[in-house]
Design brief:
single chain, Aminopeptidase, 2 domains, six-stranded mixed beta sheet, elongated
Amino acid sequence: MRSLAAAVLLTLLATARVAGQGTAGTGAPPAPGPTAPAAPAAPSPSASPRPLASAAADLGARLTWDPLTATGYLERAGHRAAFKLGAPQWVLDGTELARIDPVTLRDGVPVLSGAAAAALGTWFTRKEEERASQFHVAAILIDPGHGGKDPGALADHTLGGVKKRIVEKDIALTVALRVRDRLKERWPARTILMTRDSDVFPTLEERVEIANSLELGRNDAIIYVSIHANASFNKNARGFEVWYLNPDYRRKLVDGSTLPARTRT
């Protein structure tokens, strides 16, 4: 009898929806991703210099200003433009150096030119548009391995003088239910689904179909988490193993409805 190692296999696959697929057979379809609020209009480049705090408010940015070091930054939607008083170089998101009109002092108050405010507004808007075009997680699908007629790995243990059999399918389901409950507690608005929540056996094709049939938006993705408790012939085996799709691996998704009919020979 092989010993049952305390190993959990988590397979994380972000899958995008193929055009023409229907709605999910399990659970409700995920709500569309949140729409980013409209960015404030950039001030006119011809506008005269105005207090930095007012310019920041018009940009919808949070201002941090340290008069002792004469440095500060504007932050909006997680993006930061840092400056030093009188320096015509701004540091954008800590990596990009941009030549923008400097912050100057007028009657002891830091001010910003209209051209600088316009340039910063354009940069903030561009970064937000880039983020909006990227994939975001619309749903998380938890897949407890095995189930029903398929017990998975087996092991016999003696606990308190009583011999008990440990079955992988039960461990996988118990862990999966706990993961589901914690995810729902942490992100109540997120769509959390399971391939099974009882002792049944969905086939591999049925598990994949649940994921692929979710109704998703253009930039939506699914995180697919498959949980197992693997066995080993090595009784000293301990720990965790995680299998995941190599980030460098790419697959071209094909809409089956657009393929030509098969030619019979």
